[in-house]
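[Automated response] Your request has been received and processed.

Submitted sequence:
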Amino acid sequence: MVGALSAGPIGDRVGRKPLLLASLTIFGLASLLSAFAGSLLMLSIMRFFTGMGIGGAFPGAATLSGDYAPQRLRATMIMATFTGAPIGGFVCGQLAGLLMPNFGWPSVFLVGGVVPLLMVPALALWLPESPRFLAAKRSLSPREAGLLQRLDIRPGQAAAESLDLARGKPGQDVVQRGLCPANRALWVIFFCSLMNLFLFVYWLPQVLHLSGMTPAEAARTTSFRELGAILAVVYLGLLIDRFGPERTLAWHYAAGVVFIAAIALAVMPYLLLAVVIFFSGMTIIGSQTGANATCGKLYPARMRTSGLGWALGIGRLGGIAAPVLGGYLLSIGMAPPHIFLSACAFAVIAAAATGLLALRGVHAEPLADRSAA
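Generated structure:
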């Protein structure tokens, strides 16, 4: 949450590439040091900085993708960027199963730290900055000048003035836009979406275990949800770009309610259960990825990182509240399947808030000048 909220203004004022490099370095070092933590306090501190770095990397990567994508394909490109999260979750889950029995839990943090740190020099050399920031740069390398030429952008400050760069305080501008009904709706969507997502993620293995699976079987079956989330990128971004998020995401959240309810209430053979979990990941995790893309599509370029960062930061409050709510419901005697089922309520609220974007007549252009596309 801290990383997402603080990273937005940095990315909009300083640049997307410095934000990404700093974020990767922070969470890479913090993850690496987590493997050598000698106490619970030190491990907690390192995990805090790991989360801060990841929180900054997500909006930075998504915004940089959005800056290079045309308006008609922006949601699709941003969703493709976020596909790395479920792919990484699936791969790391498989690696953890191989590493932990032989090398213990620190090995997972070692891999999680070494990989991003190896990426930092590669990105520093080959990752391009946003074209808006390159156009305002005084001295361009031949590679950067060639990139602007291919994009038909003239270097120089005069050209940059037409490219919607942040001039004042983009974070403050986002807060002021909190008076806008569409912005309030986005924050409700992110809060309820991550509340729904975390209840779904935390309680699914427990529900499967109570159905008779061993913990190892439950973990393997749960991994199908990440594969479903990857599939959502194939079609959801295109639908958002074609029909808008108001209809596409609302129906997507509503479909997730059906699959969550089926897992919690129905007894199914293993193959059918795996299919339902696959589709639940496609709709629940895919909807959150679609919300990220929607946010990047609605905000103008000068505040795109701040807008997405604030939405993710506010959404993280829902992620923090989800385990607290789950623990409270468990303490008053509610069965885990019913706690899992409570995620449906937040999916319904997210669907309604997404639908309100259309009812209020708010689309991408009123939130952003057309020149910002």
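Summary generated for your ticket: Residues 157-161, 164-168, 360-373 have pLDDT under 50 and may be disordered. The radius of gyration is 21 Å.
If you did not submit this request, please reply to this message.
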